[in-house]
Amino acid sequence: MATADSLVSTGLAKLGYIYVNLDDCWQESRNKNGILQPDSARFPNGIKPVADYVHSLGLKFGLYTDVGNMTCQRLPGSFGYEDVDAKTFAEWEVDFLKNDDCYLSANVAPTTSYEKMFAALQRSGRKIVHSVKSSMEITKAAAVANMRRVGHDVIDNWEVMLSLVDVFNEQGLEAYSIPGFWNDLDMLEVGNGRMTTDEYRAHFSLWCALKAPLLLGNNLAVMSKSTLSILMNREAIQVNQDSLGIPATLIYSETYSAGPSTADFLVEAKNCNISSQFQYWSYNNVTKQIRQPYSKTCLSVHEQNRYIFARPCNDKNTYQKWVIHSKKDRIQLSGKCLSTSTGNALVKLRHCLNDPGKYKLPLAHPLHDIFQLMYINNSTTTFQIKDPVSKCLETNIKPQIQVYAGPLSNKRLVVVILNRGPAAHDMTLEWSYFPIGDIKQPFLLHDLWEHKDVGKFSIKDSVLVTLRSHSAKMFTITPV
User: Fold this and answer.
1) 459/480 Cα distance (integer angstroms)
2) Which end of the chain is more exposed for a tag (fewer CB within 10 A), N or C?
3) Count of H-run helices and E-run strands, the chain
4) DSSP character at residue 13
């Protein structure tokens, strides 16, 4: 309830942040009639009074469920109880349903399960926003959902945040966004403390321009002025909520001279490609490092979240000390196993599951043990690291400068210029990059973070833009 109070007291609710959603762990069991029972310690009076309080503030209330037998935290899921749960959610006056996909039976397609839950929601008689995971087929998602996650969970990390944008780009998901159905890049991490102010501004700019739902993932009780200023950027929010509802797309990329050895890069599981130089590694028996020669980096574990990065090599870094067990087909660090078992492209260090076949889980489930089997795919000095479904570990190196642009109402454009790289960079912005057609009259360039006009320009002009490392500029272009 404190979260709901904060949305109102800070003014965030007036800007459109009106959903208060309970995530996994609100439920603990089912009663004899199969009705979900909330955690009695946290919700002694049940869920309906919480929903009533949220509604009394003029806000909307959301809950979490799972189309599997259990939620990701092993609490009751909705599989087999779709109509019971939908009716319960309607009686509690739920407005938003986050629908996860953990612990699905191996012979049940996620798309089928989501369709079944959607039909139950329709029969409940209450209009409920339906949010689904990326396992729902994108071509069918708009018929049964209002938003679909594009991939893995976001965390408060620059590279992981950008990897979701990469999924959006690589899968061409902008083609599926329409009013009423949105590509969900996951919650905003703004204010959680592990990115810089520039990185948070870039994060917010991208979510707004790509028309992702803006769901706050920070602690509203301890927000700094800087965090509030980002989340309450009215001009950026107006771009996100523009009536056309068309996301920006990647229209230009370039690489500058700052060497990749100075940066961190995510390591992802990609389709094996013998021509991809960033899929090849070497092993140093003395330093115990797995090196990526082309980026001049080493396989490394992130200290806080155990995701795998390619980082500058450091012989003293204990997070780069790997043991390759060729007989067990395992790659280990500090007794834990390298795993591609996240059900998506990201790679992580996980507790080793030493009993193959014991865990009868779907292949995409995070605990499925076969994804800890790593094969050295070549016997030469450099090799590919391959998992059982023919995915190879690849250093995710992207062009440092990316330009996104998309149409807005009233013949305007939004432009986001992103510097992913480790160094400051000047870029000359050419209007030929943009889909502005045969505009003969001048147009106005407006900076959405400085909240001021840069100036009027013609099609023949160019503008020099200075970008700090890990930052973004956000503009609108308006014919005048």
Assistant:
1) 13
2) C
3) 9, 28
4) G
CA 320 vs CA 99, 278, 287, 315, 474: distances in Å:
37, 18, 9, 8, 37
- The answer for residues whose C-beta is within 8 angstroms of residue 391's C-beta and 6 or more apart is 269, 270, 271, 272, 340
* Number of other CB atoms surrounding residue 432 within 10 Å: 10
Can you tell me the distance from the alpha carbon of 211 to that of 174, in angstroms, rounded to the nearest whole number? 9
pLDDT digits (tens, 9 = 90+) for 467-480: 999 999 999 999 88
**Dist CA 471 CA 181 (whole Å):** 29
DSSP, collapsed to helix, strand or coil, labels residue 150 as coil
3-class DSSP state of 87: helix
| pLDDT tens figures, 33-70 | 999 999 999 999 999 999 999 999 999 999 999 999 99
7 contacts 56 by C-beta, under 8 angstroms:
no
Burial of 355 (0-12, 13-18, 19+ CB in 10 A): exposed
Token pair listed for 403:
């330009």
Q: What is the pLDDT of residues 107-151, one digit of tens each?
A: 889 999 999 999 999 999 999 999 999 999 999 999 999 999 999
Please pick, among 52, 153, 315, 453, the residue that the annotation labels catalytic. Answer: 153
Rounded to whole angstroms, the Cα distance separating 187 from 64 reads 14
DSSP 188: B
Active site residue 52: no
Which 8-state DSSP code applies to residue 69?
S
pLDDT averaged over every residue in the chain:
90
Q: Which of 167-176, 308-317, 429-438, 452-461 has the lowest mean pLDDT?
A: 429-438
Of 145, 90, 127, 82, residue with least CA distance to 108: 82
DSSP-based helix, strand, coil % in the chain, nearest 5? 25, 30, 45
Whether residue 100 lies in the annotated active site: yes
* Active-site pick, 66, 85, 95, 100: 100
Query: What gap in Å lies between CA 312 and CA 378, rounded to an integer?
Result: 24
pLDDT at 262: 63
pLDDT in tens, 309-335: 999 999 999 999 999 987 778 899 998
What secondary structure letter does DSSP report for 426? Answer: E
